[in-house]
Amino acid sequence: MRKDINNKFNGILKTKTTLFVGIGNALKSDDGIGIYICKNIRQTNKIKTLIVESGIEKFVGKINSIAPEVLILVDCTDFNKDPGFIDFLPIEQIQDFTVNTHTISVKRISEFFKMETYLLGVQPKNVKFGEEFSEKVLVAADKLIKKINA
Questions:
Q1: pLDDT band at 24 (very low <50, low <70, confident <90, very high)
Q2: For residue range 86-142, what is the model confidence (pLDDT) as tens digits?
Q3: What is the mean pLDDT of residues 25-53?
Q4: Counting Cβ atoms within 10 Å, is residue 12 exposed (0-12), middle (13-18) or buried (19+)?
Q5: Is the dihedral of CA 124, 81, 138, 41 positive or negative?
Q6: What whole-number distance in Å separates Cα of residue 83 and Cα of residue 67?
Q7: How far, in Å, are 9, 15, 57 from residue 53 at the CA level?
Q8: Measured between alpha carbons, how far is residue 130 from residues 28, 53, 66 in Å?
Q9: 147 pLDDT exceeds 60?
Q10: Mean pLDDT for the chain?
């Protein structure tokens, strides 16, 4: 994660109630990395997680009722970068990068949320059928989890 992004991310984690939402398909290799990350985040009074897999549209009401100050959508995202590349973007700044395994784009669904919303995307290597993560993607995810849990 770039230093400027890292500073913004750390500032949010230290000062705001945050909900991390794990998006993806666990049966399509790296596409499940958002789920993996959220399953391994240690929840606190300021940090919560929710796994929605490929059906985030079914959780709009629940997310809005949890009402975090910040919503972070964690998903496998094709940035056309090297596998394991991570970016953290305000939802307004994203194009429709999301790997097309979901029924609705992350940008479109974010219009239904009332809170500050970000995409935490991890560049995949492989989104073919399978349950194994690519090595670089898994290493990047584990570093990210360690950072969040610190």
A1: very high
A2: 999 998 887 654 444 455 666 666 778 889 999 999 999 999 998 899 999 999 999
A3: 96
A4: middle
A5: negative
A6: 33
A7: 23, 27, 10
A8: 5, 15, 33
A9: yes
A10: 89
Are 48 and 148 a contacting pair, CB within 8 Å?
no
Tell me the chain's radius of gyration from C-alpha atoms. 14
The answer for residues whose C-beta is within 8 angstroms of residue 140's C-beta and 6 or more apart is: 84, 85, 86, 122
Q: Are 123 and 82 in contact (CB under 8 A)?
A: yes
Read off the amino acid at residue 115: M
What is the three-class DSSP state of 124?
A: coil
104: containing domain: 3-149
In this structure, what CATH number is given to the domain that contains residue 19? Answer: 3.40.50.1450
Contact 115, 69 (CB under 8 A): yes
DSSP string, 36-103: HHHHTSPP-SSEEEEEEET-GGGGHHHHHHH--SEEEEEEEB--SS-TT-EEEEEGGG--S-B-TTSS
3-class SS of residue 139: helix
How buried is 141 (Cβ within 10 angstroms: 0-12 exposed, 13-18 middle, 19+ buried)? buried
